[in-house]
Design a protein that fits this description.
Layout (H helix, E strand, L loop, with lengths): L2 H10 L5 E5 L3 H14 L3 E5 L2 H11 L3 E5 L1 E2 L2 E2 H10 L9 E5 L4 H9 L4 E4 L4 H13 L4 E3 L4 E3 L24 H17 L5 H22 L2 H20 L1 E2 L1 H12 L17 E2 L1
Parallel strand pairs: 1-2, 1-3, 3-6, 6-7
Antiparallel strand pairs: 4-5, 8-9, 10-11
Helix pairs in contact: 1-6, 3-4, 7-8, 7-10, 8-9, 9-10
């Protein structure tokens, strides 16, 4: 390999020590494994179907996952969604979808399932390196919402997709003000989902609290820092108790949600039930 490629690989290697390949076809799984061994001397695991893939993901905590879009007992989109919604340590690990049918619909479906990259067959070692560089050296913001869990979809980096979603402005880092607005919108959605999906709602609200705190400090908004800290303390207490009370969540989130425009505010849930988390 060229010297530049060698330097690039050296930078990526620490993030490629544990790799999981979910592929029902032994030949294609072996080809990908061989290419990965030429790049990194890390450990490789292969799973022939979704069930074994999920078991391996939980057990070995991969730093990177390859999954076929479809095959015998393999549904890459479903696999990605299950990993993202799981309690696995690797739930935020980069996922690269592999397929010979890279249609626009397939790419967008993978993107919406929380996949980082799309690798179309037949591919070369250079194609593989491009995807590995994207997921290891160009990390994207993580979105922890209720309806979507995964990397920021506005910055989908697939080399196979050149459509309207790849905007020039997407290359830029999200400004702090925009980050605050996005976090508040996700928080609004999470609050309204407490009664229907309490575990993910709690996880989403906690994640938005962290994002809001960082952005508030960056812009020097001491009032927002204090307001977020109060909400984080409430969430920590609710997590310790193991229950969320929808009405209570709405009340404690209100000072933050009040920072959104009026038309962005969610309806207050009337459900007074105690929800286990």
């Amino acid at each position: 390999m060229f010297n530049e490629e060698g330097k690039l690989i050296q930078r990526m290697v620490p993030m490629l020590q544990r790799v999981l390949i979910v592929d029902p076809a032994p030949a294609s799984a072996r080809l990908l494994a061989d290419l990965m061994r030429n790049i990194s001397a890390g450990q490789l695991w292969n799973a022939p179907n979704n069930r074994k893939g999920l078991e391996a993901a939980e057990l070995v905590n991969p730093q990177l996952i390859f999954v076929e879009l479809s095959g015998d007992k393999v549904d890459g989109v479903d696999f990605a969604r299950r990993v993202r919604h799981s309690e696995f340590n690797c739930r935020q690990a980069p996922i690269i979808m592999v397929t010979a049918t890279a249609t626009a619909a397939a790419i967008l479906g993978a993107r919406d399932a929380g996949v980082h990259e799309f690798l179309r067959k037949p591919y070369t070692a250079k194609d593989l390196l491009r995807r590995l560089e994207a997921v290891t050296l160009r990390p994207r913001d993580w979105v922890e919402a209720v309806d979507y869990i995964g990397p920021d979809r506005r910055r989908f980096n697939s080399g196979d997709y050149t459509g309207k979603l790849k905007r020039r402005s997407d290359i830029k880092t999200t400004p702090d003000a925009a980050r605050i607005t996005q976090a508040l919108k996700i928080l609004k959605s999470a609050v309204s989902a407490v009664a229907t999906d309490p575990k993910q709602a709690l996880r989403s609200m906690q994640a938005q609290g962290v994002d809001l705190q960082k952005a508030a400090v960056a812009v020097g908004d001491l009032k927002l820092v204090t307001t977020v800290a109060d909400f984080q303390r409430y969430l920590a207490g609710a997590a310790d108790r193991g229950v969320l009370i929808p009405e209570e969540v709405v009340r404690n989130a209100a000072p933050l949600l009040a920072l959104l425009p009026a038309d962005e505010l969610s309806r207050k849930p009337s459900d007074r039930a105690v929800v286990s988390v």
